[in-house]
Write a structure and sequence with these properties.
single chain; 166 residues; alpha+beta; five-stranded mixed beta sheet; four-stranded antiparallel beta sheet; globular
Length: 166
Amino acid sequence: MAKKPRKQQSGSTPATVALTTAGTVFTVHAYDHDPSSPSYGEEAAEALGVPADRVFKTLVADVDGELVVAVVPVAGSLDLKALATAVGGKRAAMADPSAAERTTGYVRGGISPLGQRKRLRTVLDASAGSHSTICVSAGRRGLEVELSPSDLATLTDATLAPVGRS
C-alpha cells in the first residue's frame, strides 16, 4: 500500500536553507519514511506518486581519491566508469558510507546534492534535462525537494553527463 504524502515537517535542512537563500523556486514534499524500506529513492517515488525517472538519488563516489557526487534517477543505477570519465578521472568506486556522511553532513538515505558541509563536485545525469522538474533529497529521510534540473545544476555547479543507466 502506498504511503500518503504529508505536510512539511517543521524545521529546515541545509538544503532547503540553500534553496531559500538562493531565491530558487522549489516545493518540499514530506512523507512517512519506513526504516525497513530497501530503497530510499523508490520509497520516495511511490510515496509521492511521482514516476521513478523523475526522482533522483544522490550518490557519493570516490574518483581517483576525490569524493564526487552523482545525481541519477532512482529507477536505474550509477555507471561508475561514465562518472570517472565525466570528471576527467580514471577509476571510480562507491565511497565509504561514513566518509560520505562525514563530508556531506547528511545521513545515508538523506544525502542531498544541496547544502553539503563540504561542497563536492557534482555530476547530474543528462536525463534530468528531459523533465521540467525533478525531486532530490532535501537532506533528511522522508523529505524531498522538487525543483527544475537547471536550477539544481546551477546551484551545485554540476556537470551534465550520461552517468545513469537503466
